[in-house]
Amino acid sequence: MTWPSGIFLFFLGGAFGSFLNVVALRYDPERFLFHPKVIGGRSSCPHCRTKLGAHELIPFLSWLWQRGKCRSCSKRIAVRYLLVELSAGFLTLLTPFFALKVYSLTAYFPLLAGLWTAVFLLLLLITLIDLRLMLIPDEATIIILLLALAIIWFSPPPFALTTGSFFGSYAPLLGYSENAIANHAWGLLFSAGFFFLLYLLTRGRGMGFGDVKLAGALGILFGWPDILLLTMLAFVSGSVIGIYFWARGARLKKLLPFGPFLAFAAFLLFAYGPELVRVYFSLFGAW
User: Fold this and answer.
1) Which of 91, 134, 224, 231 has fewest C-beta within 10 Å?
2) ∠ CA(196), CA(21), CA(215), 5° rounding?
3) Which of 230, 214, 210 lies closest to 222 in space, CA to CA?
4) What pLDDT score does 34 carry?
């Protein structure tokens, strides 16, 4: 990847992030996720409602140039806007790089890289909405499911037991087979079943039904046994954050949403899955 193409992808991702921020902040559970009345209209200052000009909507640069303040009322603009644009920019820039490790330069690589980028941008949107409203829109989960089916369809078939899974040579130990359809079906059954059981045991207080549906979509996307590692990563990262707040003496007024941890685990698995597996098994003296 050349510098010009990398810069282009980064700023393109920032533009996507700006849009996702608008969708997340304006999202109304009573309306369709991308309803024109929700996402339509020009962006404005959240304080004085002054409409923003084109020069105030440049990803990253506008916020930095204005030092995080509105040009009209001089009130602070939350750093959230910059962070979301940066997150989307890095996702759009880095996902093709990590996809190259997974697929190499196969015929459908550009398409697969684009599909995976769309998945992670949607997971970013889910994270923003879940943090704000403690719910995961069904529309976003359905789109991820459709993207998953497209990724499965266009992915090159695994020709051996040690390919097609982030577990590599360890995959057969966990029941991985050469039948790709079976692996993705088992991924769905495990993730949806496991999270639905947690939903029942906690009566919806510890795990929402939106988490169950998102976990099922990710189970289809990653398949078995990769969804097992994704689930472990999600719970470990959630525990770390919970312990962090507890150690600082913070009292959480509400439960932490789990969607962001599923999203984080999905990207971590996609980016560093084989490395994480090697580290895990090295703890037991196995390579």
Assistant:
1) 134
2) 15
3) 230
4) 85
